[in-house]
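REVIEWER CHECKLIST
Item 1: Sequence provided? yes
Item 2: Single chain? yes
Item 3: Sequence as submitted:
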Amino acid sequence: GAEELELLERLLGLPGGNKYGVQGERKVPVLQTNNGPGLTGLMTIAAHLVRQARKDQLLGSTAEEKAVVQQWLEYRVTRVNGGSSKEDTRTVLKDLNMHLEDKVYLAGNIFTLADILMYYGLHHIMVSIT
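Item 4: Structure as written out by the authors:
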């Protein structure tokens, strides 16, 4: 969680320096902000960073793209983070394979935050596959 958010900061060209923590058993990321309440959750913080970097196109341009990005971000948090068995991993990879058969990116033909966070979430799995 927190490591992924630091990587995202760098990718977005943000200066960094945000203070991240985790809470609970599931180690949900938390961002302490200087002006207001802290933000909780990978999707919430990631969307905040995208807006801070003024790269809103990563959240989708049309209402449909925004919905698809949101869908894949939810999938990332619920299925990729939640799954730990080989069967869970197999299901996630099969879902992605089917979805990407006729698309370049998760939201169709545009690169979005969903692609970035899915990459970060699956990278450790992909490097371990022979």
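Item 5: Key structural point noted by reviewer: The chain has a mean pLDDT of 88.
Item 6: Recommendation: ____
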